[in-house]
Amino acid sequence: MDVRSKLFNIVKSRFIDGEKLPQWYEDRLEICAGCELNSKNVESKGSLSKGYESIVGAFCTSCKCPVDKKAKIEEEYCPVNKWAAIKDKENTIVSTLHTIQNLSPDKVKLEKQGTFYLLDFGTMKFGSDSRITLNVFSEGMSKITSKGSCGCLTTEIIAKERDYDFSVTYNTNLEGEIEGKTVEFLYTKSNIRTAIKFLIKGRVIR
Ligand code: SF4
Question: 176 - beta bridge partners?
C-alpha cells in the first residue's frame, strides 16, 4: 500500500464508527495493545516519536500509522502479520518464526506436530482434484523454494504482496494409503535457511 493510500485511509477512518464494525476491529485493537511495536509499549522513544504520538496517539512503530485509525480499515494489514490469526483463527498457525494459514480447510487439515506440520487430506477419490493451498508469511523472508519427497507430490509457490501461497497436489491416480511422504517450504531470513516440513497423510480410494 502506497503512502497516498495510507493517508487516504487515515482520513477515511475518521468517518467510521468503530462500534459499528465487526469483531475483527476489537480483535485488531487488542493485538496492537499488547504489541511490542505499539509506540505506547516502546520505552526508549526519541523526541520525534514522542511528538508524533502526542498528536496522533498510539502508533505502530513499524508502519507509523495511528493504531486506532489503521485498525478500522479492513484492507489495512499488520506489517508483521500479527492480524492474520483474526481472519480465521481455526485455520491459522502462528509460531515465532512464521504464520501458516490453511486456505483449503474443506480439503485438508493442518496441524502442528512437534517440528513438523501435518497435512491430512483424509479420504480422496481416485483421480480427484487434491490441490490445496496454504499461505505462508514471515517478515523479511526471501529465496523461497519448495520440494516434494517424491514425484507423487507437486508443489507450487505464488508470490503475493508480502506473503506466499504454497500449493500442494497429491497424485490421486495412485490408490492406497499415503505414507512417509513430505513436502517442504524453504526460505532464508537473516542469512538462515529454514525449512517448514509438512508430513502428508491421507488415502486414495476407488
Ligand atoms: S499493526 Fe501489527 S506491528 Fe503494528 S502495532 Fe499493531 S500488531 Fe503491532
Answer: 204
pLDDT tens-digit map of 10-29: 788 888 888 888 888 998 99
Please give the model's pTM, rounded to 2 decimal places.
0.65
Segment 31-39 shows an average pLDDT of 95
User: In this structure, which residue's CA is closest to atom 7 in ligand 1?
Assistant: 32
CA 76 to chain centroid, in Å, comes to 14
Buried/exposed 43-64: b ≥16 CB within 10 Å, e otherwise: eeeeeeeeebbeebebbbbebe
Say how many Å lie between the CA of residue 73 and the centre of ligand 1: 14
Segment 160-180, tens digit of pLDDT: 878 899 999 999 999 999 999
Give the distance (Å) from ligand 1 centre to CA of residue 77. Answer: 9
Termini Cα distance of the chain:
48
| Topology of the domain comprising 89-205 | Immunoglobulin-like (2.60.40)
